[in-house]
Design a protein that fits this description.
2 copies of one chain form a homodimer.
Chain A lengths: L8 H11 L2 H7 L8 H19 L3 H7 L2 E4 L2 E3 L4 H10 L18 H14 L1 H20 L2 H12 L3 E6 L15 E4 L5 E11 L8 E8 L12 E6 L1 E3 L5 E4 L2 E6 L10 E14 L5 H37 L23 H33 L3 H36 L11 H9 L8 H14 L4 H16 L5 H26 L3 H29 L5 H16 L2 H11 L3 H4 L8
Parallel strand pairs in A: 3-6
Antiparallel strand pairs in A: 1-2, 4-5, 5-11, 6-7, 7-11, 8-9, 10-11
Helix pairs in contact in A: 1-10, 3-6, 6-7, 6-9, 6-10, 7-8, 7-9, 9-10, 9-11, 9-12, 10-11, 10-16, 10-17, 11-12, 11-13, 11-16, 13-16, 14-15, 15-16, 15-18, 16-17, 16-18
């Protein structure tokens, strides 16, 4: 009855090589010319093995046991996590995408995203420990001094030290401008950090010998609001010049949260009591440094959703093959048994296909964004890098919010396939739902992602970046040699989104509430278009190719057009309805 | 930080009295003429008090502690449950809707549904114990002999004895035709029941001195499938002729399930080992007897969803009033504070309004069905009773599935309002989500409800009952004096559903998979129409009335038209897409 997982390597390789022709992309980019197909294949095979053999077996037990606060600032991870982390670190996985100058392997996001998918598929809680370390290292790489990089990155890549991001405070979640954590300059150039951070993933644990906290705080004369936030390195143990560990710093976990899911991930309250911290970059540039990391992390949150929906799908599909109940509508299948497998019922398939069309589209979409991330980071063509960067900025909130929303729905659908058994812990499906629910909330709620998309990325630049993206999709549809219905569907969807975008930009000029009122539905409308675009790319990649694999991709695109894409219009209508029906109520009505 | 609840008595009374004019309805039905407004008001007040003061305080602690299997067939409910159940029973709540001939209070479903809403709002786990007892008593009242009724009902109404429904077996959930539990005739007219039932809510507990199990089993020469199922009374303790308890029967809980939610409700594996059972009604009529109860129970499942969404809404609204984060889009509200309450953000209101429009529509819809249940049961007008019965049959799957689906979405939206705090146990919101998730699964999954609607209730009678319902809505819209946009929206929605219905009936003639492929989307399309119809009835009831209460109802209807109803078209399109894109895959594709 335990969950099983087979990494969808064929699907991954199809996406990587046939849809996006990654080998050619790497060849064409000097800075990625070290990436070769054979190595990548080996990486995927190895991670598939590690995920199935090491991480999946400690997924349900980790949920059952949970991370534990032992008192006195100590946190224990569940049985098996230490060994798994050690094995993971030793294999070099944490530095897979890291800078080779500091011992990283320099693999592009197009590759690391696939390893992350497998990680999240098999153990969402475990995945967060290395993931936060990777996030912190990306932040350091982008904003820290060479000395700091040398001091910290190598050991973080090696998993010897872990990392965290300390942003949220009890009264300051979305609104980081009002944080209260203070940084007072010491005589030696360091700062004394004092304050309490909450919801710190991996704030304390027993997996690594040191933890490098990246902390947002305000210096004494900092400007008010988000322009006065600085970023600090606060190590759990001080680091001597020779790299050895010194004394314990004044930072300690006060407790851990008891949560709906990801229970094996320690979510800590962190107390900084004059802890020694080192400024990263210049004062008051902390948020900017964080945002370098955010684009990577938010794509990764989409991968959490994707991974969860793949695990949910595989197990629901297996259950539907095994579970005998009733007789198929088209006639008895199992004449020798009392009932037929429920996979023969269209409604069961509908639920499975919702999950499957999501995972295929989500992986393709994440890969599309990953390729743009890699172009932005590694391309020598400045114009191409700039354009890619703009596209990443535009699409990141969508890959974070739309993919996690659709993946949560997929997990719910797959749980539903199990009937009553889906509600029972033993079967594992309800854990997938509980675990992946967080992906819609953290790293900026999906509502905040939607405001980022419509407010900052669309309205603020007058729709220029979105318009360029819509043109690209339109051109791709126009150029497609396929006769599949996805082509026409994508064309008409582009038109719908184009009109909606223009309408909302116009509305925002007269109505201060327009963006907030329409953001989530707008993101969903655009999200469906993005998935449609991905199916167009998939269909193009299948063009002229025979065989079941490609045929099934065409069928999935059929299903997407028939049974998923109609939601685009509904969201577009709701987004276009504006703020009046929402803001008509007095605030006091809500009680 | 704990959850609060204020029973929405104004809303309830508005629905009961102003939308459906219940006092007049009771007056016009001889068998309900004993129901007076004053008593009903008192009942609602008392239940509101009990729910808030007794049930809510043991809701989170009950989840934390959970029901416990003590070994040797014994189950303990969490702290406070025994006292609460005793108090609940003593107040006569279990017999509120029961037959006065056996000590019940004869209150109609229009009243009991409101008490059930409050029960489920404040403690979904607790609610199930009396609820199953009520369900079993309804079943007995409909199908048992007078002797049996006399023997059991009074003590069940009094809460001295509890009841269960034992249907599901490990291999037989949806498909009850393949159950294996056997009933062998004894010499004394009783039967020896042997088999194992799973997922038995309240199968064992410490709340009552006896438990009356209603068990589905097959007699030796029963026809195969669902036509060969009989219903038996199997008491935990045998009942002597004088009503006193005799020896322990051979039925015992083997274990309880560990579940995603409703953890304080004991979900038992029940082992029947030649237990003495008494046939209810004739052999092989067991399913029919169960279905009498089902219409009541399935409406009650809708009320579970409704209750959960009300609790979620109230707490999210309160949080949104208290939580300061960012500045309102229309300018600073709290000049003396660092931030404004998030209730000023349109997106936060959107989530709250999704929940609020759901709860108002769901309550109205449940009341509409409850009135038809009461007409079917109590009316002297045979034609009216028959018509009401047909409408109940048509709408029951919708009130079960659509209301629980929309209520789950509402709970998710309200959890989202809390940001990260929504994911933390302490705040209580995640429990609402976990608890109410079951309502989409049990009592027939929502997929099964959808098949019931489209297959048995629509296609099977050639759409006659649905057509009559659509005519009724159309006529109501045509007769409405209101200028509100809901009128035109409902009219056009009727047309959409009418065309869809005709299309699906036609499709089912040529395509054996047509019903299964379209059922869920069809139910959702019809569900949105039902909610629209309810807003029409609400708007009609508000017509010509001034004041904030009525004005807010008109605004809610505006919101529903602008931001919810557009989903109807999407579901209609997906339902109309048929089975081809689903059944095109080989069964082996799903892996």
């Amino acid at each position: 009855m335990s969950l099983t997982y087979t990494a969808p390597l064929d699907e991954m390789r199809f996406t990587l090589k046939e849809v996006f022709d990654a080998p050619k992309f790497w060849q064409n980019n000097e800075k990625l010319s070290h990436v070769d197909e054979e190595t990548v294949d080996m990486i995927l095979d190895e991670m598939a093995k590690f995920a199935s053999e090491v991480l999946l077996p400690i997924n349900q037990s980790g949920d059952e046991e949970g991370a534990k606060y032992l008192g006195d600032g100590k946190v224990a991870t569940p049985a098996g996590f230490r060994q798994a982390f050690a094995q993971y670190a030793e294999a070099g996985w944490i530095g897979l995408g890291g800078d080779p100058n500091f011992g990283g392997q320099g693999m592009p996001k197009m590759v690391t995203m696939l390893t992350e998918e497998m990680l999240f598929a098999t153990n969402q809680s475990f995945a967060l420990y290395p993931n936060l370390t990777v996030g912190a290292s990306i932040c350091l790489l982008a904003a820290a001094s060479d000395e700091q990089k040398t001091k910290y990155l190598e050991k973080m890549y090696a998993g010897q030290w872990a990392g965290t991001m300390c942003l949220t405070e009890a009264h300051a979640g979305t609104d980081l401008g009002i944080i209260k954590t203070r940084a007072l300059p010491n005589d030696d150039g360091s700062y004394a950090i004092t304050g309490t951070k909450i919801f710190i993933t991996g704030g304390e644990h027993d997996l690594a010998e040191n933890i490098i906290h990246l902390v947002l705080a305000k210096t004494p004369d900092a400007p008010a609001g988000s322009k006065g936030i600085s970023l600090f390195i606060v190590p759990k143990f001080m680091v001597n010049d020779d790299g050895s560990l010194g004394e314990r710093n004044a930072v300690q976990a006060g407790s851990i949260e008891h949560k709906m899911g990801i229970k094996a991930s320690a979510t800590c309250v962190m107390n900084f009591d004059g802890a020694k911290g080192y400024l990263v970059g210049a004062e008051n540039t902390g948020l900017a440094a964080m945002f370098v990391m955010m684009n990577y992390e938010r794509v990764t949150m989409g991968l959490q959703g994707l991974g969860a929906s793949v695990l949910a799908y595989q197990n629901a599909a297996r259950y539907a093959q095994d579970r005998l109940q009733g007789r198929a509508d088209t006639g008895v299948v199992n004449a020798d048994k009392a009932a037929d497998p429920i996979i023969h019922f269209a409604d069961v398939r509908r639920m499975l296909l919702n999950a499957k069309t999501n995972s295929v589209a989500a992986r393709t979409f994440a890969m599309y964004v990953a390729q743009n991330l890699d172009t932005a980071k590694y391309s020598d063509d400045t114009a191409a890098a700039k354009a890619a960067n703009a596209k990443v900025a535009l699409l990141t909130p969508i890959v974070k919010a739309f993919v996690t929303d659709k993946s949560f729905a997929a997990a719910i659908d797959c749980q539903q396939v199990f009937g009553g058994h889906g509600y029972i812990k033993e079967w594992g499906m309800e854990q997938i739902v509980r675990d992946t629910r967080i992906s819609q909330i953290y790293e900026g709620t999906n509502g905040i992602q939607s405001l980022d998309l419509l407010g900052r990325k669309v309205v603020k630049d007058g729709g220029v970046a979105m318009s360029a993206f819509l043109d690209e999709i339109d051109a791709a549809a126009g150029a497609s040699a396929s006769s599949h219905s996805i082509v026409a569907s994508v064309k008409s969807s582009v038109q719908t989104v184009r009109e909606l975008t223009a309408k909302l930009i116009a509305a925002s000029k007269d109505d201060a509430n327009a963006i907030n009122a329409s953001a989530v539905d707008y993101l969903h409308a655009v999200g469906y278009l993005c998935y449609g675009y991905m199916y167009l790319l998939i269909i193009n990649a299948c063009e002229g190719k025979a065989g079941e694999f490609y045929e099934n991709k065409r069928k999935l695109a059929d299903y997407f057009v028939a049974r998923s894409l109609p939601s685009l219009d509904a969201h577009a209508k709701m987004a276009a309805a504006g703020s009046s029906s929402i803001m008509a109520f007095d605030a006091g009505f809500f009680a």
